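Handout, section 4.2: multi-component inputs.
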Amino acid sequence: MRRRHFLTLSAATLGGVLVYSLDRKASFLASEQKPLRIPLRFFTETEALIVAGAASRIFPSDDSGPGAREAGVSIFIDRQLAGPYGRDRFRYIQPPFEDAPAVLGYQGKETPRELYREALKGLNGFHLLSPGEQDKSLQQIESSVFFALLRQNTIEGMFCDPIHGGNAGMVGWQLVGFPGPRMSNYDEIDKYYGKPFRPKPATLAQVTHAKIRLGEDEP
Amino acid sequence: MKSLPAVDVVIIGGGWSGLLMAKELGSRTSLSVLVLERGPSRETSDYANDMDELDFAIRLHMMQDLSQDTVTFRHNANKRALPLRQHGSFLPGAGVGGSGEHWNAQCPRFLPDCFELLSRTTEKYGAKSLPEGHAIRDWGVTYDELEPFYTRVDRLLGISGKAGNLRGQKIDGGNIFEGWRSEEYPTPPTKMPYFAALFRDAANSLGYHPYPVPSANISQTYTNPDGISRGGCTYCGFCGRFGCMVGAKAQPTNLLLPIIQKRKNIVLRTGAWVRRILFDAASKPAARGVTYIDAHGEEVFQPASLVILSSWTFSNTRLLLLSGIGEPYDPATGRGTVGRNLTHQVSVPSANAFFKEPLNRFMGSGSAGMLMSDFDGDVFDRGTLPFLRGGFFSARGFGFQPIGSFGVLPRSVKATWGSEWKKAAVSYYDRTGAIIFTGEHLAYKNHFMDLDPTYKDKLGDPLLRLTLDWRENERNMVDFTTPKAVEIARAMHAEEVDAFPGLRSYDTTRYQSTHVQGGTVMGSSPDQSVVNPFLQHWQLPNLFILGGSTFPQNSSANPTPTILAFAYRTADALVNRYLKNPGTLA
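Output:
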């Protein structure tokens, strides 16, 4: 068994928003509350801090709104890597593995888990750098397979249904005006031509009141 | 190997065409019908709980599990093919209903001359106009012969739209370039998302002829001739890549399965992976049945008097090759038929338009929008243009979700991550839409499918190998149509418009369409085709093949209504002729 690792999140790092712990209980982190210790499924604590730092440079929190830090992107990625996606359950992984032009897609042998674990070794100490130094460090790897994966996973963690561990408090959805899964837009689709229609967002569980099966929990 | 009790009909694949054939044969005759589907059963009651972009639109939970079986790809026969290790340019579905569950349900018909492409083109432009190395063929069926079956498909699906050609009478507001229709669509057009309404008005102002997408996401409550009722679309936006949570989208599970489940003579068996079709080659050639791996992993023999092969294009072709039925196509000699005429479809975002005002892009459906066929087929004056055929534009409100659609930016924004990128991507998020061009893909002698010499599926059987690339005809077609889309986007008062840069080599990573055709093509001659125009195998008269694999080349239109029209035609030929007197139909 691997030693249990936790990511410690303070109200300050999360900006005082809802986060979903591993047992899917929603907690509201107000500033007066104690830091929340979230158990990690795949990353070590240091790895999670590096991923959190890198995701925050890809999708920063700035004057245009919240970013990867508030959305809990590193927690989302931890769960994805621990599940079937992380070990390439659905990818064709028979050898031989050959180099190929980009138009043939990713041909590597390494699973997402392996790509992360290997790349994070090379980013040792990343979370201790200043934002400017972190950007320089990422610029050096921005054409790598790992960086493309991290960037894609960061966007996923910003905008997924919060039940997957990212988009905490629906901060990502609110940032772009996405309301989540709405059962009907019949009355609105042709009534808001040229004007914003921004219904209050709701998660899938809030909409259907049903138990949602999650890909990351499948074998 | 265990041999199961014989059935009258075994159907391989439980998607649109397999289940339609099961419904037709099982309800019009008393034959015992067994459908073998390799994927899982489906619970349409789960579709509301499946409105999750990550698991369904990004991780693609309804698609084939590529860890078990994929295809290999190469751009030409001099290259080594490599496996498509993850989904990309097409998305074949898995499980009951197949790709018919997760489709966008856009339902135009093929233009009449598509079915006689070789003779009509030669007649009008001469043989010299045909591209070098082409393999264009007539289908052996005309549009006029197919029209009654198209109409049955319209009624089965309850398609929403507006006719543009009723028995030769052109009607403004519909597609005036379409083939004649014997009757109006069963239901009126869907509501229009804002982006599509902008496109409609701009195209009209330029003198074009836009029309509402013929949509099997129906606009209002409809009861089809089988007595199946569905409600209208709610424009929730969870459409393509999802099953429909209100059942407004026509799907095999809501139109065909309820009837099949009531018939005691039809059995649908899931988790059944058909490996071979067995046949006798002796004095009276015939298929004997199939072998399959059942849900427990045991390989069994299922004898049958009639075999219907109705899986997707790839599995139809691969099963014939694995079973040794017919002669594999060899592009070097032109001999053989199995695997020939592989085509995909041109599908490019001709113009990415960026607007000042928000578009409310989360509302919509996969087929709520407008099409425009002024540059389709051979309907326009092509003068000295350096290509044959054409395609149509679409402006649809698919129902955009943020993981997949965040980050579409004007080319003037160079950043791809960090604060500058994020600010731009947030700002443009709901202000961008694409005018998509979908064009015909001609058949070429060097585009084909065969068995891969290296890579195997989970059972150790060779994967199917695709050899395919874009040619001058497709590149020139895109280069000609792209500026037309840019002109329309400008007339939509977009602030900024980016033109598609042009087709290069075929990119397996960019989703284009799930409209891959050929491999077991139909035709009038056994040395050029695998099945006759009734989709009956030339050598094994009790084997019928349904689906896009029978198309000699591709149209610009989405294939499902055409696939279903041919399935109806074959069902009629089986019930009215073959079953009374089994033998060759053509």
